[in-house]
Amino acid sequence: MTSARFSKNAPGSFYTTGECLACMQPESIAPELLAPLDDTNSDTYFVRQPETPEEVELACRAALSCCVSSIRYGGDDLSIIRRLGNSAEYCDHPIPWWKVWAR
After folding, report:
1. Which residues pair with 91 in a beta bridge?
2. What would the pLDDT profile of 65-91 be if each residue is shown by its tens digit?
């Protein structure tokens, strides 16, 4: 399942759908990756994509913390998909059950 990407997202595999409630939890986890929420911005979106394993972990934590599941992963990296629970709630391309343990 592929969700609609919010137009403000930086190009790449991690994105938001624009349906965030602005709770500030994801932004507090990944402040270097997500736009800050303030008086001039009430939208959650990726200002840049994660570049290091540490930043990928922060993006995954931000996704898992989002109360409305509006942060998603659209790539096909199996380790990231597994980190996100192999769930269609967070991933556009979950691994079919018969491939979960193949790698």
Report:
1. 73
2. 999 999 999 999 999 999 999 999 999
Q: What is the pTM of this model?
A: 0.90
11 sits in the region (left: phi over 0; alpha: psi -120 to 50; else beta) called beta
User: Which pair of structure tokens corresponds to residue 75?
Assistant: 């790539």
In contact, 56 and 71? CB cutoff 8 Å: no
Cα distance between residue 14 and residue 73, in whole Å: 5
Chain segment 26-61, per-residue pLDDT in tens: 999 999 999 999 999 999 999 999 999 999 999 999
Which domains occur in the chain, in start order? 14-99 (3.30.70.20)
Q: Are 34 and 47 in contact (CB under 8 A)?
A: yes
State which amino acid sits at residue 103.
R
